[in-house]
Amino acid sequence: MRAICETRRSLRDTRRKMKKDASVAACGIITFGAEAADLFESLTPEAQDAAFLDLAESVADRLNTTLHGLVVHMDETTIHAHFQLAAYNRDGLPLSQATRPAVMSGLQDLTAQVMARHCAGIERGHRYGDRIAAGADFRETLHRTVRELHRDLPRELAAKQADIAKLDAAKQEAQARVYEMQARVDKLTEKAELSEKEAKRLETYEKRLADRVAELEAAEQAAEFATAEEQRLAAIARAEAGEAEKRAAQADEDARRVSEKAGALLTATAALTGEMAAGTLRRTGPNSVRTANPAVYRPAMPDIASMLGAATDAAEARRREEAAAETARRQRLEDEAKAEAARTEAAALLADARRERDEAGKVWEEVRRLRAKLTKALGLVSGWLKSPNLTREARRRGEALQKVIDEDQDLTPAKPNDSGEGFAM
To answer: pLDDT of 386-397, one tens digit each?
Structure first.
């Protein structure tokens, strides 16, 4: 709203910037008299909304500004609506300068025209002057602000009291004139016989007396009317003073309630902060929360409700994250333990393999030693078979054995393989 008003104000050549506390929204209210309210409430909610919107937009157009807010209230005796307009018109002028009494009175006419389109039978109320002329009591036409009442009533009372003083003086003067003329009439009527001249004089005096009595009655009536008006204004002043006292008392009560509510909110907020740190908030249902100290939150309800719910949801989310993190930590530790066990088992298998390899090496050395002995023995046998001193039978068997030795190539020793993991015969 402020940005809109500043933009419009910039259309004019101004020397100063817009004040920080300048009004940026003009507020209005759409209300009805008793009979008009009955007619309007017979409409459907959709028709009522359409009428309110049509009127608010028409008022905005008439004032050359724009509508920015409209809400219908049903929480009081009579349906009514509040609306907000940009406080600067499209020409960059504040509405306070662009609206005059005649313009505001014209809005009343506009209201009647617009509402009549939506609800037959609604008419404009009578103007102030027309109501006074029709005999309405001044109090019934009094629509002034509290500030205006405080300003005007003392001056009006003082002016009326001055009028009463003048009227009292005029009344006393008229009374004296009546007494004077009555004395003259009485003096002539006391005579048994009147001359022709005295009779004419008495007739004149009686006529003057009647006129002076009429003047006195008029003065008394004016004084009574002024006194009644002064009493009425005094009653208004007393009533306004009483209303002012009530408003002051209500303001004090409102301030007390606000202070108590603020204190309760501060206490509840501090407790909520502590419970968030301690992790004692629990959600027991979609709209229910369990706290460590429910009594501290009750005075701050319902203002603290949304904050309490959000804090509880945050605490629940934090607990879920912590639980997930703990599960992940335990899984990681379990995986690390399994990996360590696998490494230990692999190391044991490698050690066993190495021991078996060492033992196989020892066996291979023994086999090599035995094969060397066998080869040496076979060499001796081969040499022996070649001896010329052998008998024919021994030579024959020796030749057969030599043939076996020559034919069996596997009797030649083989080297171990490079890996050292086995050997071949």
So the answer is: 777 777 777 777
CB 304 within 8 A of CB 268: yes
Q: How far is CA 236 from the centre of its chain?
A: 40
Tokens of 318: 């934090």
- Decide if 177 contacts 212 (C-beta within 8 A): yes
Q: How far is CA 302 from CA 76, 251, 283, 294, 318, in A?
A: 21, 22, 17, 13, 25
Tokens encoding 76: 């009081």
Structure tokens at 293: 């100290």
The tens digit of pLDDT for each residue in 28-79 reads 889 887 788 888 989 999 999 999 999 999 999 999 999 999 999 886 667 8
Angle at 259 between CA 257 and CA 262, to 5 degrees: 105
| CA-based end-to-end distance of the chain | 104
Helix, strand, coil in percent for the chain, rounding step 5: 70, 5, 25
Which SS3 state, helix, strand or coil, does residue 351 take?
helix
Sequence-distant (≥ 6) Cβ neighbours of residue 133 within 8 angstroms: none
- CA-based nearest residue to 48, from 82, 83, 81: 81
Measured CA to CA, the distance from residue 76 to residue 280 in angstroms comes to 42
- CA-nearest of 68, 99, 64, 89 to 8 is 89
Is-contact 138 232, C-beta < 8 A? Answer: yes
Amino acid at 356: E
Enter the DSSP assignment of 139.
G
What gap in Å lies between CA 150 and CA 147, rounded to an integer?
A: 5
Asked if residue 302 has a cis previous peptide bond (ω within 30° of 0), the answer is yes
Integer-rounded Cα radius of gyration of the chain: 60
Residue 163 near residue 226 (C-beta atoms within 8 A): yes
Length of the chain: 425
